[in-house]
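I have been asked to look over a protein record a colleague put together. Alongside the sequence sits a line of tokens, each denoting a local backbone shape. I have pasted the whole thing underneath without changing anything:
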Amino acid sequence: MKNQKIKILIVDDEADILAIYQEKFSLEGYRVEATDKGKEVLTLAKKFKPKLILLDIMMLDTDGYKVIKQLKTDKITKKIPVIMLSNLGHGEAIEKGIINGADDYIVKVNYTPREIVEKVNIFLKDHK
């Protein structure tokens, strides 16, 4: 398992989606932490120290834009790359994600979970 030391934090409010991504990344060898609560992300990121955060926009307790602002203004987490992973695929949502500090933006419905794992593999390879 080539990625066993690489930690990824996945944030999504839909339990079934979260479980799918946890399984796919775990099978690829990543160490995965996951949460469905946006308000836990900053604390969890500081504790887990992931190499990458996959962050949904729509959440029950907050939204991904607020979360990424917290991450990018905190001295401990500001350098952790964040990929927004959302079904919001219109230009305004993507632009807002990038403006707020996202390193990339993936529209979930355009890719299978396997393809998203492949995109993350490439992203991490390019951002060593």
